[in-house]
Description:
The chain is an alpha/beta fold. It has helices spanning 45-62, 82-103, 126-136, 146-149, 155-166, 196-205, 227-241, and strands spanning 2-11, 16-26, 32-43, 67-71, 106-109, 140-145, 167-172, 213-214. It has an eight-stranded mixed β-sheet with strand order 3-2-1-4-5-6-7-8. Helix content is 38%, strand content 23%. The chain has a domain at 66-170: Divalent-metal-dependent TIM barrel enzymes (TIM Barrel), CATH 3.20.20.150. Helix 1 runs parallel beside helix 2.
Amino acid sequence: xxxxxxxxxxxxxxxxxxxxxxxxxxxxxxxxxxxxxxxxxxxxxxxxxxxxxxxxxxxxxxxxxxxxxxxxxxxxxxxxxxxxxxxxxxxxxxxxxxxxxxxxxxxxxxxxxxxxxxxxxxxxxxxxxxxxxxxxxxxxxxxxxxxxxxxxxxxxxxxxxxxxxxxxxxxxxxxxxxxxxxxxxxxxxxxxxxxxxxxxxxxxxxxxxxxxxxxxxxxxxxxxxxxxxxxxxxxxxxxxxx
Length: 242
């Protein structure tokens, strides 16, 4: 089982009164599987963020998850230091990874589209994620979501660089033009501009043999339809476009 964790922590004063929160989602982000939050007294932002990651990982291990997908967070409040944010993320992942190895859980960094660099994920390309993996060693890889990375001219090379050992999850949907909402207006495969057969071929060349996880946030369209009809369309489009 793969799960996704969103975790954060912070302090007022750095150091100052601090706390963290973590939410563990199903891989399709449809169900909250576990939550954890705690005030931890006086601490720095980094310590609070690390404690959030550990809390999420603990919950994931208790659920029996084999892989934990990480959405790493964006800039600290009031900051414009993107490189500094990535350094904080790497420091937290390094500490978390030691714990994850002991729990037998692999960690997958999910790069998100640059539109989310400020608030949700300051790691925005597969290459950036793999650079972190190179420095941190075994037990960490990437979760690749076509929606977030299809635009990257270096994508094929980075998928091949990941290889079967570090390519830990593969998410598919399509990018609509126009897009009415950047979070909740994803398209069904074949309805947008992503060349999914090409990306799928790259995934196979990179050694991917796992599931094709269809991840369509679609508040204005597919979420309003009959679920059985949606599943039938996924099966049909998957056979054609994946």
